[in-house]
Fold this protein.
Amino acid sequence: MQLVQNEQKLKQAIDTALRQLRESARSRLPATGEFAPLSAHFSCAALVRGAGEVELRIGSVSGDAGTKERFVEVRVFTPSAGSQSSSWVFYGKSDALQQELQKEAPIQGKIRAAILEAAESILRNEFS
């Protein structure tokens, strides 16, 4: 079964959300400490079978004021939004995260793979 229903629009949606996340990180990601999560969303329902909304999220690993560890998470919600599947596509320090976000092709590929893996999980478990 083919999961991706429109490859070009999926790429565009990922690009747009990634650009929003990159801009938020540039202006609002502190070098250390806790912060309000940064996120970008897009609808994937017409793009990938089994998927609803997708959220790209940057968060802090701990509440410790000196922590530098960050993560980029991909959350894929079911079409009904009753459940979700998520995975991290990056883990590291703030400066490394900023560099990773600039490497468009690798991070886009990781995000796309995480979306498809989540959609497969959703379909396999029939959470929608």
